[in-house]
Design brief:
It contains 15 helices and 25 strands. It is of the alpha/beta class.
């Protein structure tokens, strides 16, 4: 590879280009900073990205750069959220699993890919599996591929390798994936996790996310047997169950014996464990999030969360009213895929109230809120007060079930709203 400085590499970007930046725990910040330094000479450069965990505002997210850089994200993350909320950027709504296909067909054109990758192996292949999700397809189609190459990026296997000959310019550096540590789950998170775990069978194939509730669910299934993993995010909690033999992938039909993911987010120790680990494979989300592939694994279980849910089972997970908070991500892909699987189950796991005491089970969604999972797809919903199954219930019965797991101080208002909305069909259930 030809190694250059970051400032030299980003000279390949032209006005009018669309740049796709890799996300997850490996945002190419050095390249973003160098790009921002060119703000005076660039115009109408669109920047897109998926989910990432970088907390500091992205270098290009400044109001004074508004004519140079436009954020058009696929998943609004913390580093861009305020900039988009201020009107300097937007979000393109896409199911995450559809994004690689959109790139490859040119429906969402990508001119330049900013990636972060491992050092090349003896055959010249680098790994971008630390966040393969949309980066793999972006690098395939881009006119220019610019890479931050670091010995601290783990070398991962699967469909996440790129040959050094495909990299237009490389910046040799010592960047490392963002290390994230999660403490012990709170009592509320532990209760939610236990409620979900009670419905997960031995032999289940899991899709599970990042954070306190997913960790609590993983704690609740630590005595299960022969679990599998086909997910978006590889995390410390998952690795713990792999090491303990709880996740052995022995009953999977797709990649038996192998844990499958699209990205990895966790501690430095976790990154060391997955480095050059043949028992794990990383692919782009066109593969990991394919509902019909997900459905081939028996007892596939998807565990996701929500910003709020209404009394009919509509799930909002991308916005707070009209304010876009994130995106649909892979929730729909896995909720649909797992529902098709033999013995499959889907879960929405969330606290009954926000940290500020606002109810998350509501009569109707906040005006402007987006429906990520429709009422026709919702199966299990869990809070710290219990777990209910909605899929075989009519609207009135759904309301009654959801009220039973709402915060006790919210139930009277929810009962009143349900009476007004559903009339006698709900009133008769109160007896």
């Amino acid at each position: 590879m030809k190694y250059v400085t970051a400032d030299e590499a980003v000279r390949l970007v032209r006005s009018g280009d669309t740049i796709c930046c890799q996300g997850g725990a490996s945002v190419p910040v050095l390249l973003q900073e160098a790009l921002a330094r060119r703000h005076a000479e660039l115009r109408d450069v669109t920047i897109t990205s998926g989910f990432n965990v970088h907390k500091e505002p992205a270098p290009f997210c400044k109001p004074e750069y508004k004519d140079s850089f436009l954020v058009d994200s696929i998943f609004i993350s913390a580093d861009q959220r305020a900039h988009v909320a201020a009107g300097y950027g937007s979000m393109t709504p896409l199911f995450l699993g559809e994004v690689p296909g959109m790139f490859r067909r040119g429906e969402f054109p990508v001119d330049v890919a900013f990636i972060t990758c491992s050092l090349p192996d003896e055959n010249g292949y680098c790994s971008i599996g630390i966040s393969a999700d949309i980066a793999v397809s972006a690098a395939e189609v881009a006119r220019v591929v610019i890479a931050e190459v670091s010995p601290n990026i783990p070398y991962l296997y699967g469909g996440c390798l790129i040959h050094e000959s495909k990299i237009t310019a490389a910046v040799l550096c010592d960047v490392a994936p963002v290390a994230m540590q999660f403490g012990e789950p709170t009592p509320v998170e532990s209760a939610i996790g236990a409620n979900v775990a009670s419905e997960i069978p031995d032999g289940a194939c899991l899709q599970i996310g990042v954070g306190g509730i997913p960790n609590a669910v993983l704690n609740g299934i630590k005595h299960h047997k022969h679990l599998g993993l086909h997910t978006e995010a590889m995390t410390d909690g998952v690795i713990r169950l792999v090491k303990e033999g709880v996740i052995d992938n022995s009953l999977k039909k797709v990649h038996p014996g192998v844990s499958v993911a699209a990205l990895a987010i966790g501690s430095k120790e976790m990154y060391g464990y997955i480095d050059h680990n043949r028992s794990m494979e990383f692919y782009d989300v066109a593969y990991t999030n394919n509902p019909f592939l997900i459905a081939q694994n028996p007892r596939a279980c998807a565990i996701n969360s929500a910003i709020e849910i209404d009394l009919t089972g509509q799930i909002c997970a991308d916005s707070i009213g009209t304010a876009i908070f994130s995106s649909v991500g892979g929730q729909h892909d896995f909720m649909y895929g797992c529902s098709l699987a033999e013995g499959g189950k889907t879960f929405i796991a969330m606290p009954s109230r926000t940290a500020r005491g606002k109810a998350k089970i509501v009569p109707t969604l906040t005006p402007g809120a987006g429906v990520v999972t429709t009422r026709f797809q919702t199966q299990y919903v869990a809070t710290e007060y219990g777990i209910v199954y909605l899929h075989n219930l009519n609207l009135a019965k759904r309301a009654k079930a959801l009220i039973s797991i709402a915060h006790p101080d919210d139930r009277e208002a929810l009962e009143k709203a349900a009476c007004e909305r559903f009339g006698y069909s709900f009133l008769r259930l109160r007896v």
